[in-house]
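Sequence in, structure out.
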Amino acid sequence: MNRAVAAAAGAAAIIAVDQLVKTLVRSQVPEGSAREIVPGVDLVHTKNSGVSFGFLADAPPWVVGLVSTVALFIVVGVVARMVPGRAGVVAAALIVGGAVGNLIDRILFGAVTDFLDLPLLPPCNVADIAITFGAIAMAIGLLLEGVAESRAAAEAEGGDPA
């Protein structure tokens, strides 16, 4: 399976899970409520009209959509060109799936449904978690590529790759 197909399949899975969980939260958890899942972690039902962590919350919806779309294209471009192998596929799938999942909420509801309240963070959702782990996968892929290039350069010069 080529990288684009694998990334698209992964993104579709993230979108499906994200939308399913958000639908359950909207239908089963009263907005503004909080229920403790485990100590320090609550199931909540909140709306976020901004982007990550409430940034641009007071901006018009079209500005939020535009910023989100531009950021998505930039990140996908970086991942597609710079992050090799599985790390690139995983990063692209997670970031695209998460971004599209939240964009669907913005288009349909004017705000993103968040439901997981973790310590030291604002409430989040499956899409936010996917984007975060996608960024981590992208960083790891870029770091590993840098290490591989350094080793290859050292070997080409006849030096010790370690």
